[in-house]
Amino acid sequence: MSLFDRIDQDPDVFFLTRQSCSENDASISLCHNLISKFNSSNGGYRIIKLDSYYDTIKFAKPPKAPDCLIIIERNGRFEIIVVELKDVSKPANLKPLSEIREKFDVVARFIEKDFPHVFIADDIVYERLENWLVVAGFDLSKAKGLFVDALAGKGLVRVGGLTAPIQVKSSGTEIC
Prior knowledge:
Blueprint: H1 3-9, H2 11-14, E1 17-18, E2 21-23, E3 26-30, H3 32-35, E4 43-49, H4 50-54, E5 68-74, E6 77-87, H5 97-114, H6 116-119, E7 126-136, H7 144-152, E8 157-159, E9 162-164, E10 166-170, E11 173-175
Parallel strand pairs: 3-11, 6-7, 7-10
Antiparallel strand pairs: 1-4, 2-3, 4-5, 5-6, 8-9
């Protein structure tokens, strides 16, 4: 069974799937080529709204989670893009960075502990991990160096045997 079949057949995970990853004015977009392959045997994607899972009555004290887990299939291998969306009027409102960093660590719990029967199998190969902090509301180019340096100092995020730093992106960044 393919990973996307597992996602679509698990009621708890399927309930979290969305067509987009956006919140207020912060968003990412998917290129037409990727959208056209949504249910294709040649690839596709799924967007999972992670924070919706942890913001339920199942958790007395829910962990902070990023907004979206995007899984892309290319030639039978999978890429993971973790997205935290922030719509803030000024860079100071992005702090504390430790809380932002903490959200990305929850993805490993979701994949490896909460839903290993969906995301872990011998035939599921994760090839790439990216962690994005997507920001709207101010000119990111004026503050980007500060945030990139500060987030890089928080270390790498590990998910599914892969590691990657958190990258700061502008709202509207396209995944292709």
